[in-house]
Amino acid sequence: MTPTAAAADSPPAATVLEAVIVAHGQPGDPEPQEAALQALAARVAAHLPGATLRGATLAQPGALEAALAGLAAPLVYPFFMAEGYFTGRALPARLRQTGAKARQTAPFGTDPALPALMAGAALAAAAEAGIDPAGATLLLAAHGSQVSASSKDTVYAMAAALRRLTPFRAVTVGLIEEPPFLAAAARGLGPALCLPFFALRAGHVVGDIPEALAEAGFAGPLLPPIGEHPGVPALIAAALAREAAVAPG
Question: Mind spelling out the 3-state secondary structure of the chain?
C-alpha cells in the first residue's frame, strides 16, 4: 500500500477544541471578574476532556490577548446576556486587533438551553422558600439598554419562554437602564421571587438590584444571577461542542 493510500484509509485526526470565554468585566476593579472567568473556564473544561479552555474579560488590560496566545483557531464564547454593542462591535474589534484566527459564537443569554435551566432554578427556589408558583410572580431583573433594543428584546423573549415552561401566575420584567424600571416592576406583586438575568455578580447585581427591590418593598427571595447556576458550565460546554462540530464559514 502506498503512503498516499494509507493516509486516505486512516481516520482524520481529531480536532482539539480550543475556546476562550469572554465577559465584559468591571473596569474599575477588573481582578475579581477576571478570576471568576478563569474559574468558569476551568469548570467548563471539566466537561470537555482534552479541550483547552481559557477565560478573560475585556476590562482587564491584556487579558484577552494573553488568553488567545498560542491557540490555533479558538472559539470565542461571549459570556453576555444578549447580542449588542459588545458582542457586535467591541469584541470583534478586539479580536481583529489580536490577529487571532478566532470564531465568535452566539452569547450565553441566547442559548436555546437556557430557558429550561432558568425554569428549573426558579422552581427550585420557589420550593425552597415554600412559595406556590401558581399563586406567585417570577420577576426577571435585567440590564436593558438606552442604545440597543436587543437587550430588552432578549429578556422579554426569555420571559415568554418561562411562561410556557413554568406554572408561575405571572412572569414579568424589570430593567436597570430603561423602563420598565425594576423598582416599579417589583412593587405590589404579592408572593414573588426575583431572578437576575445576568452572567456575573458585578455592580448591578450586588448594588442596583437589591436597592431597587428594597425601594419597592419587595419581600421575596432574590436568587443569584443565572450565570452562577451550577448547570451553566455544562450548558457552555455543550454549546462549544456543537459549535466545534460546525465547519467554519
Answer: CCHHHHHHHCCCCCCCCEEEEEECCCCCCHHHHHHHHHHHHHHHHCCCCCCEEEEEECCCCCHHHHHHCCCCCCEEEECCCCCCHHHHHHHHHHHHHHCCCCEECCCHHHCCCHHHHHHHHHHHHHHHHCCCHHHCEEEEEECCCCCCHHHHHHHHHHHHHHHHHCCCCEEEEEECCCCCEHHHHCCCCCCEEEEECCCCCCHHHHHHHHHHHHHHCCCCCECCCHHHCCCHHHHHHHHHHHHHCCCCC
In CATH terms, the fold of domain 114-228 is Rossmann fold (3.40.50)
Whether 3-110+230-244 shares its CATH topology with 114-228 is answered: yes
What's the pLDDT at 22? 97
The domain segmentation of the chain, as residue ranges, is: 3-110+230-244, 114-228
pLDDT at 204: 74
Q: What is the mean pLDDT of each run of 10 residues along the chain (249 residues)?
A: 37 67 88 93 97 95 95 96 90 92 96 98 98 98 77 94 98 94 96 95 82 96 96 98 83
CATH 3.20.20.70 fits 3-110+230-244, yes or no: no
